[in-house]
Q: What sequence folds into this?
């Protein structure tokens, strides 16, 4: 059910995963930390999947419930990623780098846009 409704998010996940693995296995020099990007991609896909499960249980006739559910999903995603960022900063003493953060922010924005698009189409 999730793959039918959210095929674009799954394709984005697979494209980033395959591109990252290709870069890692072929030792291609890129200015971003591929392991960090792959971890962010996996976390974003998992959060999108969990938000999809939560949105299935929402009363679709009540627009306030839909808005509250989307806002809660965005807040949960923000809290999870803030905690992950703080944990990473405590664990790794090396700075992440601007290109890596920018790539992660773009992935976050795209997954959030796809999730909101899914909710709008669900009506």
A:
């Amino acid at each position: 059910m999730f793959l039918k409704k959210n095929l674009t998010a799954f394709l984005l996940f697979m494209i980033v995963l395959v591109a990252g693995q290709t870069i890692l296995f072929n030792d291609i020099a890129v200015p971003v930390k591929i392991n960090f990007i792959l971890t962010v991609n996996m976390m974003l896909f998992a959060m999108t999947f969990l938000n999809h499960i939560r949105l299935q249980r929402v009363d679709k006739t009540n627009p306030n419930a839909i808005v509250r559910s989307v806002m809660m999903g965005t807040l949960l995603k923000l809290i999870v990623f803030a905690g992950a960022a703080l944990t990473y900063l405590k664990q790794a003493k090396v700075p992440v780098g601007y290109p890596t953060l920018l790539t992660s922010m773009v992935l976050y924005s795209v997954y959030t846009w796809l999730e909101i698009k899914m909710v709008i189409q669900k009506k």
User: Anything to note?
Assistant: The chain has five helices and no strands. Helices lie at 2-5, 7-25, 34-56, 63-91, 98-122. The first helix runs from residue 2 to 5. Residues 2-122 form one domain.
